[in-house]
Amino acid sequence: MIYAEHLRKEFKKIVKEPGLKGSFKALFKPKKEIVVAAQDISFHVPKGDILGFIGPNGAGKSTVIKMLTGILTPTSGECRINGKIPQNDRKKYVKEIGVVFGQRTQLWWDLPLQETYLVLKEIYEVDDAKFKKRMAFLNEVLELEKFIKSPVRTLSLGQRMRADIAASMLHSPKVLFLDEPTIGLDVVVKDNIRQAIMKINKEEQTTVILTTHDISDIELLCDRIVMIDKGKNVYDGSLHELRENFGQTRELVFEADDDSGLTEEQFRKSLKLGKEDLVIERDKNNFKVRFNSAKIPVGDMLSHTLSVTKVKDISVKDSDIEEIIRNLYRQGEVSDE
User: Fold this and answer.
1) pLDDT at 335 exceeding the cut of 60
2) Long-range contact list for 142-146, CB < 8 A, 24+ apart?
3) C-alpha–C-alpha distance, residues 72 and 246, integer Å
4) What is the CATH number of the domain that holds 142?
5) What pLDDT does residue 91 have?
6) Is 325 among the domain residues?
């Protein structure tokens, strides 16, 4: 459904020197600099998948989404959505996609929500019978009834996000682009929107590309993620593979039975581990030991801990997906295999 191959986007930026002299120079003899926002981005998304498209701020996510939606033209490379090139024949193409930008609304501020949908009905040329059936489905999934007669400007953030998702789905798009759809929302509203996305995807086989900084969105909605940093692919695969390949860090949490004299240096020396493979945090008799299970198995770490101190309570936690992703960002160089 989505085919992106070797996408690259360059922008020209005028570099201005300080002061009045710099302003005149920039006006008459501007110095230009090439900024590469995306380079060699490639991924494919089958029909009906939900893809998590993630990366730190400034990684190039929005640039790639704008190329896929046809807002920007790639400097080089190719993208096709359902066999169509987004930048060609825009009117036909946009009828097959829905787009939600979390911080920008596509709704008319002073119109009641139901009138906004009537305007969109005409824009997308949705016939009366299909529109009625579609609105019934969107009301069921997104619970619009309570505020559908209210002007858009009176809606809360959570209501507006639900209304925006409904607007993007009104014409039954084959592909839905969601850019930070849960940003700034409370836990209950976030859960409602996630449930709605899952239901739309399951019942209509809508292909979804989701960009988000909320790791919970990724864990609950996406089987696969594409991660980019500095305009490049750094990972493409499933969350399971991500944990298997890059989630060797484990966390041992225990409460010592006495005022233990254990120190991080003692642990490292006895286990022959470096600073990068073992870190200890301590609060009185409560210890949190983060260690590389590729260097020392969990069983050996447990045995060693129980041999050097009396323990009242102990537990081992797997790697947190947020911590794994944060470490990948820091490394900045990960194979996408």
Assistant:
1) no
2) 142/166, 142/192, 142/196, 143/192, 144/113
3) 34
4) 3.40.50.300
5) 80
6) no
Per the structure, the complete domain to which residue 38 belongs is given by 2-243
Residue 332 lies in a domain: no
Q: In the prediction, which pLDDT does 122 show?
A: 92
User: In one letter, which amino acid is 192?
Assistant: N
Q: Residue 31 gets which letter from DSSP?
A: E
Q: Please tell me whether residues 163 and 86 are part of one structural domain.
A: yes
Per-residue model confidence (pLDDT) at position 330: 65
CA 233 distance to own-chain centroid:
14
- Whether residue 98 sits in one domain with residue 189: yes
Cα angle 65, 51, 95 (rounded to 5 degrees) comes to 55
26/161 same-domain check = yes
pLDDT of residue 208: 93
> Among 317, 318, 165, which residue's Cα sits nearest to residue 239?
318
Query: Could you tell me if 139 and 79 lie in one domain?
Result: yes
What CATH code is carried by the domain that includes residue 256? 3.30.70
The span from the CA of 183 to the CA of 199, in Å, is 20
Could you give the CA distance from residue 48 to residue 208 in angstroms, rounded to a whole number? 7
Number of domains in the chain: 2
CA gap 6, 76 in Å, rounded: 7
Q: What is the largest CA-CA distance in the chain?
A: 76
Q: Which of 39-43, 220-224, 291-295, 332-336 has the lowest mean pLDDT?
A: 332-336
Rounded CA separation 211/2 (Å): 15
86 touches 70 (CB < 8 A): yes
Q: Are residues 196 and 48 in the same domain?
A: yes
Residue 177's identity, in one-letter code, is F
C-alpha of 52 from chain center? 5
Question: What tokens were used for 134?
Answer: 């579609």
- For residue 14, give every residue at least 6 positions away whose Cβ sits within 8 Å of its Cβ, in sequence order, or none: 26, 30, 31, 32, 33
CB atoms within 10 A of CB 50: 24
How do residues 57-101 score in pLDDT, each as one tens digit? Answer: 778 888 999 999 988 999 999 999 988 899 887 888 888 899 988
